[in-house]
Design goal:
The protein is an alpha/beta fold. The chain has 2 helices and 8 strands; from the N terminus they run βαββββαβββ.
Length: about 130
């Protein structure tokens, strides 16, 4: 089995997807402009990693009230300090940052909708396809 995607029900999939594209460098692999406004987003490798949709038939979790350790969307960062400054200007908010003993840094922020985003600058990065 191969991972295909992870899906999130969000209040405004179109605006949320656009923010992730504009500020995180994701690209829209496929979208539907009718309800529930599904947007499949890919990372720079071209692999789809997340689907955002706004489905009124299901509860939209209150991401703002969930601790980031309950759920977060993690991306690779080459400079957590610069990413924090850039994303705060774009409406994200800082939650915390950890410096790990091996030299890695993990930056936790929330996007404008409260979804937890983690930016990982790992001393030993995970292998990428």
């Amino acid at each position: 089995m191969k991972f295909e995607h992870f899906a999130l029900n969000v209040p405004d999939a179109r605006a949320h997807a656009q923010w992730l594209v504009t500020h995180l460098g994701l690209t829209v692999a496929r979208k539907n402009e009718a309800v529930p406004y599904m947007h499949f987003l890919s990372d720079e490798t071209g692999r789809v990693v997340v689907e955002l949709y706004s489905n009124p038939g299901a509860i939209v979790p209150d991401y703002k009230t969930q601790h980031p350790l309950v759920f977060h969307f993690a991306l690779v960062s080459t400079d957590t300090v610069a990413d924090r400054a850039r994303l705060e200007k774009a409406g994200a908010t800082f939650f915390g940052e950890d410096a790990l003993p091996d030299g890695s840094r993990l930056l936790m922020m929330r996007d404008p909708w409260g979804l937890a985003l983690q930016f990982c600058h790992r001393k030993a990065p995970f292998p990428m396809p």
